[in-house]
Amino acid sequence: MKSIRFLLVATIVIGTLSGCYDYRDPENQRLNAWVSSIDWKSKNHGMPLIMLKRQNGTEQRFHHSSITLTSENLKIGDLLVKESGSKMCEINGKKIRCLK
User: Fold this and answer.
1) Residues contacting residue 72 through CB under 8 Å, at least 6 positions apart
2) Which of 17, 31, 73, 96 is deepest in the core (most CB within 10 A)?
3) pTM of this prediction?
4) Binning pLDDT at 50, 70 and 90, where does residue 14 land?
5) Which of 92, 67, 88 lies closest to 79, judged by CA?
């Protein structure tokens, strides 16, 4: 009985921590790349999917429900810079809030 309670509590704690980490994941991302494609209403619950191309040619995804950018703020070919731990982005040298 004690082991079942322990497993239940451990599962709840791990699930909670995982949810918190997932929520903060886009805030912890560091971006410095050009926008190569944008899907404002992706198949994944309608969340924006922004594909970025770094200077070295590799691609990076910026995909989360907390992204507040719109088609007026961001276009293909724009330079998107974001520091880790920040909710602010710099788009072509202009600072704008990009996360809730």
Assistant:
1) none
2) 31
3) 0.70
4) low
5) 92
